[in-house]
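Feature request, filed as a ticket because there's no other form

It would be nice if the structure record came with a short human-readable summary line next to the tokens. Right now we just get the raw output. Example of a typical job, pasted below so the devs can see what we mean:
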Amino acid sequence: MSVRSESGQWCAATQAGPSRRELLAGGAAARALAWSSRAAAVPAGTDANYADIDPELIDDLRLLAEMEVDADNLLAFRHRPPARHAHPLPPSSMPAKPDRRSIPGLAGEPPVTVLVLDLTRERRERPAVVWMHGGGFVAGGAGIPAPLVAAAAEHGWLIVSVDYRLAPEAHYPAALNDNYAALRWVHDNAAALCVDRSRIAVGGASAGGGHAAMLALAARDRREVPVAYQILIYPMLDDRTGSTRPAPAGTGHHVWTARSNRFGWSALLGQPAGTANVPAGVVPGRRSDLAGLPPAFIGAGTLDLFVAEDIAYATALAAAGVKVDLAVVPAAYHAFDGVAPLARVSREFTARWIGDLRAALA
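Raw output as currently delivered:
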């Protein structure tokens, strides 16, 4: 069954979880979080640590070398081995060969490295997506997720992934300046890149989703570059989660914890997470001036540390008149779609945000 959302998009609905309409109504956060303890039947013999998780998401999670990050193990965290998969995706035959380029930074800032993926030979105006990688603000590098590569190949999109500066070596606003420089570069060079300036989206997952939200706010505030859509995949939006606000019950036990969150935000801010006076504009979850932002997809699992802050941001966007498609996935942990990409909920989640992006950029 499907239901028509307030944003005018078709969204998957099930009898098991709360509907999007319920999530954006009063008391929605409490109802959504209640689903974190109502996973489907778990196979016999499953460890108690996995009892609340969707069974299809467990095997891959068991192979994940989980590591909390702090100042003492940051280097090891940045160089941890790639995740193994119990059920890996088949090798892709798609020629995904992004070009590494150096583009100008903002005035007084260093050049920015970006990956540019252009899989079409058609020289016509087409949409573009500026993508920010995850890594808790402190790790990772420019890259483009496989589903976005496939969508770019199918629809002719240009994808630009930003190798922004990492904290704590460079705290706010260094990464935002790098991301904004990339967004402005795409806009200012639209003719050479064959990009339609009215169809530029921003997006990212986890810390990348947080950076995308910051970038959308900065673009609206500076009024230089219009943003058509924002894809916020389990975004990192509020420094108070796990610091001055306890982690929601049942969340943050896998992949990204409250302790790691405190470190990541403190590294970005250059001061302890949860501090009363954070730099103006840096924390999307603290912003109250959300009117005029581009439409958004926001998604998270009910076991994700970020689920409450993501629901709160979606609700605040909707209250400010911004169209939002909110996807809350029962019994799913942080980054579940990357850890277990073949699970049913992962495939449905990916299809949903790719579908939203396709409709927004049509």
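Something like this underneath would help us a lot:
Strands lie at 2-4, 10-12, 99-103, 112-118, 126-132, 158-162, 195-205, 229-233, 296-301, 324-329.
The two ends are 25 Å apart (CA to CA).
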